[in-house]
Amino acid sequence: MKILTKRNGLIALTIFAFSFPYIAQNDYYLHMLTLSFIWAIAVYGINLLSGYTGYLSLAHAGFFAIGAYSLGLLTVKAGMNFWMALAGACVITCVIGLLIGLIALRTKEHFFAIYTLCVGYIIYLVIDKWEGLTEGVRGLIGIPAPGSIGPITFDTAASQYYLVLLFLIAVIVIMYRIIHSLTGRTFIAIRNSEDLARTIGISTMKNKLTAFVLSTFFAGLAGALYASFIRFIGPDIGSTAIMFDLLMYLLVGGIGTLSGPLVGTLLLVILSQNLQFLQEYRMLIFGPLLTLIIIFYPRGIAGAAFEWQRKRKDKKLSMVRADMHIKAEEG
To answer: Transmembrane stretches, by residue range (predicted)?
Structure first.
């Protein structure tokens, strides 16, 4: 019986994740990991659209900001209950994503990327300049922490860590179900050849719009969790710098893979925290790193690991076939 199976590995990682607050007993590490999990949720949204459907959206940071500001405005200015505001933030982000997607998805390839880049910058400008609603450059302060659920409260670093971890696990499960469903296979068919998918009867516009809205949902959810975790937000969370970070997490981890967003986010966030003394040279470090990964490992770290594992299986299978062939000849 093999011990190192994929199932046992997932169980071990889950146990480690839930036991980490007891192992570390350090609020700084909990804060860093909680923030990583939030970014990972947003990256899963990009992965669904870009990795599995083949459309690179550069407005994802804008939708992240919409989710964050929606929760902030609903709780701070409208006085809404946190959980209702969280649901409202996701709905608002999806509605705006639907309206933008109806127009954006009429373009393809680099035109789509350029269009969404412009949309993301417009969202940033609206947040920055509409001071009467968003407070502009002053930012939105006083955002409440997640509301209690019965006797369970979220006023400690450990409790917020567990809350975000549960949301991350839910997102990964949803992604897994989508990818391994007929809808997911339809997304992949569109990515491989949209014209061919159309000829076999797939409604490409409907499926692309579904993927786009789902990606904005993940971005809005991540943004709302970020706002409740940091308790203060400014226009910078919708900037192109944040978009670059999210895209970098995806490309390093592995685009079009289920584990890639989490691997890339955890690796680069932890690396960034440990290299804060080189913050001024951040782009000089990550730029060449990203370029090398794209050249030698187009599907990132996770994709490279899967490819290595596949080659090992093929090698073992070829050796078994060779042995069977030799035995057959000897017999």
So the answer is: 7-24, 30-49, 56-76, 82-104, 111-127, 161-179, 209-234, 246-271, 283-306
Comparing 153 with 166, the larger pLDDT belongs to: 166
Residue written as tokens 């981890």? 253
Euclidean distance between CA atoms 245 and 320, whole angstroms: 45
Say which residues have a Cβ less than 8 Å from residue 205's Cβ, sequence separation at least 6: 105
Tell me which DSSP letter residue 258 carries: S
* Type of residue at 51: G
pLDDT of residue 1: 43
| Of 117, 127, 114, 135, the residue nearest 65 (C-alpha) | 127
Is residue 278 classed as helix, strand or coil in its secondary structure? helix
Rounded to an integer, what distance in angstroms lies between the CA atom of residue 145 and that of residue 209? 33
pLDDT tens, residue by residue, 11-36? 888 888 888 888 877 888 899 999 99
Q: What is the mean predicted confidence (pLDDT) over 220-231?
A: 94
Q: Which CATH class is domain 16-298?
A: mainly alpha
Burial 15-38 (b: 16+ CB within 10 A, else e): eebeebbeeeeeeebbbbbbbbbb
Of 177-191, 229-243, 266-280, which gets the smallest average pLDDT? 266-280
